[in-house]
Amino acid sequence: MQKKFSLKEARKAKDSVIKRKKIQKIQQVQQTQQAQQTQQVQKVQQNIQTKIQPKIQETKPTDKIEKEALIPCPPPTPSVEVDTLLVTKVFQECRVVDTNEIIDAPVAPAAAVDVECLGAELIAPPTCVINFDNTVTVTFSFVTAYQFLDINGNPIGDVQVVQTDETRTVLLSRAGEPNLECLAEVFLECLLCFVSERGTTGGILEVTCCVGKQIVFKLVANVQLQIPTYGYAPEPPDCEEVLGECPEFTPIWPPYPPQNLLNAQSNCRRCKK
To answer: Can you spell out the DSSP letters for 77-144?
Structure first.
């Protein structure tokens, strides 16, 4: 005997298929991006190796310079000067990659059959604190937005879900050293939004959004460094003007009535002969 599925189970199965297809599409895009990044990195490494190899061959066997060591900067020349710059130097850093499941119970329009992610962004810059046990903690708040779609795929309303005081703590061995400060960068990306629960009539009761988080922790300090420079940057090119919607105004000169003397004489009634 064939098992009979209820309307709710059928819709749930359909939502599961749609979710699976969206995830597969996202994975394909991510794999393509990773392949492109790998090719770019390999190309850069090849260029670096091409430049470093002649220097390595010139090095004598008795030298203590390892092949993997970076080539020191060339000495200053008349066209190169050494400047002292005040910069923010990174002494230690690490990265955390994670995914959040944002669950929302919206009041969906009656005509809504599906949802689509619009994006995720920070509400304010994140704050980073150094703890007493060689750990650092970042706190941030963000908003995730998605929209409802009708049966034709047209948007019919959107929702914003706020996540406040999200925290993450990591271990950095140099945390707590004098003059080192904590800095955190948070990058968000809305990967997917899907209907996770429907009512008996097919209405949307619950929406789940998957938000990817990439958090970069850094221990930094302001320092003065001497670096070779080639002077100031050249003069930049002129900016391109942005044309507005209105047409360009080219008035006729002079903006006065025409001097038609013949008509003026024929209409003159009080002229003396």
So the answer is: -TT-EEEEEEEEEEEEEEEEEEEEEEEE-----TT--EEEEEEEEESS--EEEE-TTSEEEEEEEEEE
Q: How far apart are CA 159 and CA 149, in angstroms?
A: 12
Say if 268 falls within a structural domain: no
Count how many domains the chain has: 2
Whether residue 122 contacts residue 224, with contact meaning beta carbons closer than 8 Å, is answered with: no
Q: Are residues 89 and 215 in the same domain?
A: yes
Pair (36, 60) in one structural domain: yes
Question: How many residues can be counted in the chain?
Answer: 273
Contact 170, 93 (CB under 8 A): no
Higher pLDDT, 62 or 181: 181
Pair (42, 148) in one structural domain? no
Q: Using one digit for the tens of pLDDT, what is the confidence trace for 168-214?
A: 999 999 999 999 999 999 999 999 999 999 988 889 999 999 999 99
**Angle at alpha carbon of residue 175, lines to 173 and 179, rounded to 5°:** 135
* Distance in angstroms (rounded) separating the CA atoms of residues 81 and 71: 19
Dist CA 65 CA 256 (whole Å): 83
- Report if residue 119 sits inside a domain: yes
Give me the domain span that covers residue 200: 77-229
Q: Which amino acid is at 160?
A: Q
Q: Is residue 10 part of a domain?
A: yes
CA angle, residues 181, 183, 185, in degrees to nearest 5: 175
With a CB cutoff of 8 Å and minimum separation 6, the contacts of 19 are: 192, 194
Tell me, yes or no, whether 134 and 171 share the same domain.
yes
List, in order, residues 6 or more apart from 177 with CB less than 8 Å away: 219
CA–CA distance, 130 with 70 (Å, rounded to integer): 32
Q: 85 falls in which pLDDT band (50, 70, 90)?
A: very high
Question: 247 lies in a domain?
Answer: no
